[in-house]
């Protein structure tokens, strides 16, 4: 890579903030779709509605994870080609990403509609919770194409130099969701169906706006073969997509594992407590992931442009910002734990335990930044083996082990205590993989993108 000792830090800092701030806002808003539903449902229907949404959240996240994975996979190629100055390849990659999103947006909802009964039983839904979960997820899946397009095209819009537009689209969707939740749930008394209808309509707004902008940004050199499947580019998109897919899906796998432990050690009350924790946790994770996703275009651009010093300068800056935000979120959650529990209208008898659980899990936030930025660095620079290891070792090995050990020792309290332990281990692995010795080894093994 380029070893030029001088870099324009002011220009890089401007680029950094230009991408990172909108990305943080966009990621937070993307997660708010389900969180807003939780707030309205929790205050209108109560613990049963809250638990129902939490139980089916993993299904919804599969759609979002697929969209995010494919979208970021395509956007990484877009940024690398921008760095290499290959405009036609950049536009071709964007169009191939749309084709992939359309394919997944058609297949996944049909699959889940056909298997939802089996999945709901597998997730532990029973009685009133089962009915509420079924009403909610059926509506989401009928409109399943919309969240796939909306979430999948957002990284493409961002990586083509329009992060503010990408964020504006997300804001438009969130405002739509809030307004429709109020109308459908409070005014029309549509319950779980109304919450899902509001969410899917809002995501339709985002999808429409993103499609318009992507077509507008890539029509200049458009050729008909851009919409025909290109195996080479599809393979490269999917190879990169594995990491961001995992980064989005892993929290849902953790939700499933944790729900099982909650049901085992505390029943429906513990599930309701965890539903509040998972919403707050999602906000923290999305903010930190927003920093990682925000710097990804810069990582990929400087990697494609062969500018090593700029690449590592951006990484160090992102690492520092993530660390500061992680600690800030931890402190804020601890200070306002009771207020957070009240916002979700948790039952009075569960209030104190919910506040304590929020404080315990908040210790995990301090370590989020290390893993999020490092994994984003790896997949954005085509080092997918390291990013995949860092992402998938959590649900396969670390989380099950920590949940088992801590619940055996401390019962239900051990569920909350396992979260900080998981993040300490993951952050340690991240630092080892990003160490100078490992950096040198991987540079010898990984070829620059052709």
Automatic annotation (TrEMBL):
Gene Ontology MF annotations: antiporter activity; xenobiotic transmembrane transporter activity
Transmembrane segments: 16-35, 55-78, 99-124, 136-157, 169-186, 192-215, 236-257, 269-288, 318-341, 361-380, 389-407, 413-433
InterPro entries xrefs: MATE_fam (IPR002528), MATE_MepA_subfamily (IPR051327), MdtK-like (IPR048279)
Keyword annotations: Cell membrane, Membrane, Transmembrane, Transmembrane helix, Transport
Pfam families the record matches: MatE
GO CC terms: plasma membrane
Membrane topology: Multi-pass membrane protein
Source domain of life: Bacteria
UniProt-annotated location(s): Cell membrane
Name this protein carries in UniProt: MATE efflux family protein
Taxonomic source organism: Peptacetobacter hiranonis (strain DSM 13275 / JCM 10541 / KCTC 15199 / TO-931) (Clostridium hiranonis)
